Amino acid sequence: MNSYIKEGDNPDITEERKKASFNVDALTTFYHGGDKQLQNRREVEKYIEDHKELQDTRPTPFMSRDELIDNSLRKIAGMAKFNEMIDMNNIDRTTYFLQLVHVRDSMAFSLHYLMFLPVLNSQASPDQLSEWLPKSLSGTIIGTYAQTEMGHGTNLSKLETTATYDPKTSKWWPGSLGKFCNHAIIVANLWTNGVCEGPHPFFVQIRNLETHESLPNIKLGDIGPKLSLNGSDNGYLVFDHFRIPRNNMLMRYSKVLPDGTYVKPPNAKLAYGGMVFVRSMMVKDIANHLANAVTIATRYSCVRRQGEMKIGAGEVKILDYQTQQYRIFPFMSKVFAFRFAGQQLQEIYKEISKELKMGKLSQLADIHALSSGLKALVTFEVQQGIEQCRLACGGHGFSHASGIPELAAFSCGSCTYEGDNIVLLLQVAKFLMSNCTNSVSSGVCAYLQEKNSSKSSDLTTHQQYSDKQIIQDFEHVARKSVLRAFDKLRLTSQTCQKHEAWNRCSVELCKAARWHVRLYIVRNFLATIAIAQDELKPVLRALAQLFIFDLQVSNKGDFLENGYMKIQQIEELKEGVWQAMSTIRNDAVSIVDAFAIHEFELKSVLGRRDGNVYPGLFEWAKHSQLNKNDVHPAFDKYLAPIITKIRSRM
Ligand SMILES: CCCCC/C=C\C/C=C\C/C=C\C=C\C(=O)SCCNC(=O)CCNC(=O)[C@H](O)C(C)(C)COP(=O)(O)OP(=O)(O)OC[C@H]1O[C@@H](n2cnc3c(N)ncnc32)[C@H](O)[C@@H]1OP(=O)(O)O
Ligand SMILES: Cc1cc2nc3c(=O)[nH]c(=O)nc-3n(C[C@H](O)[C@H](O)[C@H](O)COP(=O)(O)OP(=O)(O)OC[C@H]3O[C@@H](n4cnc5c(N)ncnc54)[C@H](O)[C@@H]3O)c2cc1C
């Protein structure tokens, strides 16, 4: 019996669950990475269910900004009582606990956990750690990561905040900076002995630890309402010749000696490690936001009946329309593709960061390129997918009752923070160009050196399209795109300065970067499902085929070029898309059930597990302040006098 089926559920959604062709719990375990991860999730969910002080007092879309901040801090204060759930030896459970308490409200201390602690941990010297880490873990030190300025976020080399050894700018955006944190890791251009040594991180106290007032020569404040994340006090910080001790420069890698001498790090970019860490963590997290949106749109599409396919046969479930399936299912397949890529990226990051700690820097460029590329491509695709899921829910999708507007607003910020996506794709392109000049490329770039690649695809039918053939075809397209950009750059560089040539080729360079990242995701998706248990292979294969075939059909020009594929082969791939969607249709609700997203996270009337949407919408609307009185006071105040006057003249 499917554990998702319960008494009182909407009959349409129960009918869908009875169609499952696979074991939903088995897919949940595979999707979440094993029994241990699943046990972590269940513990956290039960814990929060049992502790009301960790739950929202009412749906957050009805809250003002002050209420959001109050709600966020109340839950954080509540969390402080439950520090048994904050276990640095069980990061997965701790991360899920933080995530499920705050969901998309972005708590006021997100940066403390997301960047301040990791950067301190990785950039502070052992002595500095022994002094600052215990206070930062206990909560007496609450920090943020303040790098971006009003005038500079992308271009770190031109940061105007200077840290002059013994010698005015505003930091703008950092989360928690405005009102709540009392410390910040400040990234500033270091000047010592009259030389600029570039961006470096500094540990800076910004508020009085007793009164919490801004320290002298520091101005702090909130930057105002944003598209989302309004539960966080993203703030500004203005320094006016603020002094800090030399020892407040984080000195694991580079140092300033008492006489001002600068000791160089093994690699200047080690100072950017905090950004690589968050980018590496973000991909799996942002894929989960797409999983939320796809869950909402899929479940709602099974209880929403609209229109008759056959006159007189009764209205159909909108998920029976092929166009509705095509709006949702490709993004359902991307949830798996991006999650598996994000999982792999976190594993690679963990391995490489161990090497970096031991001073082995050979993989630094690789992890920078991989984390930048996946962050840039996945955040953009997720933003597109959440919007399609909103559209799939029609008018109710536009209401906060659906949960989708909050998902959309939250996810779109990820295309900008931790690095603008275009800027990061250009970083990937730099990495690729340098690999084009290498005589031998290893790892993720080995395909660039393939000299005897096939001149045409040997795809026959989509059923027989093997993993090997798929990867060969994607390597062909990615290699062609990268080498085309490389040749364009080489030729353009013969007619103008290097930086101008780079700019004139930058659109092609971004296209090449995207194909490189897509190849990585396709390869990883196929490798991941190859190790799944046999009973899950059919549904996972259908999802992988949908992801891959739809990607090829949507970019058919790249595959048709130079006759590599024939139009008949593209038509064959289209058939593969329709076939995959038809296979997925009967399992759609069970696939999203397997994401095992708790109602606290989904925050959606349309996507609720039981499918009882319409009664739920009325319950939801009762929270509206406008419904406190049948006649709103504004009517009596403004309209009634005018109407009375008009009536008296009639
Ligand atoms: C985990 C779950 C997440 C949940 C999230 C929940 C809520 C989130 C809410 C809000 C968001 C939270 C926090 C947000 C924080 C921030 O946004 S922090 C600020 C982020 N800012 C950026 O990312 C800035 C982007 N710009 C840059 O990084 C630099 O401009 C760039 C590095 C791209 C350019 O560097 P620059 O030195 O100016 O020039 P080059 O292009 O020549 O680079 C020089 C060489 O250095 C290599 N390199 C560049 N960056 C890195 C790096 N990070 N690591 C390693 N190496 C790097 C580059 O490849 C060049 O190498 P070569 O010289 O070619 O060998
Ligand atoms: C929700 C949110 C939370 C944030 N939290 C923090 C935080 O906690 N700490 C922190 O330090 N920062 C934070 N930021 C700031 C964020 O890191 C920056 O906004 C981001 O790095 C982009 O930089 P920018 O704003 O300068 O954009 P810009 O670089 O000004 O981007 C504007 C446009 O210029 C283009 N562009 C810029 N440079 C180039 C180039 N070299 N080549 C081609 N095109 C280019 C971009 O592609 C983009 O289209 C946050 C931002 C947001 C939205």
Automatic annotation (TrEMBL):
SUPFAM superfamilies: Acyl-CoA dehydrogenase C-terminal domain-like, Acyl-CoA dehydrogenase NM domain-like. It is found in: Peroxisome. Residues 272-433 form the Acyl-CoA oxidase C-alpha1 domain. The active site is at E418. Keywords: ATP-binding, FAD, Fatty acid metabolism, Flavoprotein, Lipid metabolism, Nucleotide-binding, Oxidoreductase, Peroxisome. Residues 468-643 form the Acyl-CoA oxidase C-terminal domain. Its main location: other. One of its GO terms (biological process) is fatty acid beta-oxidation using acyl-CoA oxidase. Pathway: Lipid metabolism; peroxisomal fatty acid beta-oxidation. InterPro entries: ACOX_C_alpha1, Acyl-CoA_ox_N, Acyl-CoA_Oxase/DH_mid-dom_sf, Acyl-CoA_oxidase, Acyl-CoA_oxidase_C, AcylCo_DH-like_C, AcylCoA_DH/ox_N_sf, AcylCoA_DH/oxidase_NM_dom_sf. FAD binds at T148, G175. Signal peptide: none annotated. The keyword Lipid metabolism applies. Residues 23-142 form the Acyl-coenzyme A oxidase N-terminal domain. One of its GO terms (molecular function) is acyl-CoA oxidase activity. One of its GO terms (cellular component) is peroxisome. Its cofactor is FAD. Belongs to the acyl-CoA oxidase family. This is Acyl-coenzyme A oxidase. It comes from Caenorhabditis brenneri.
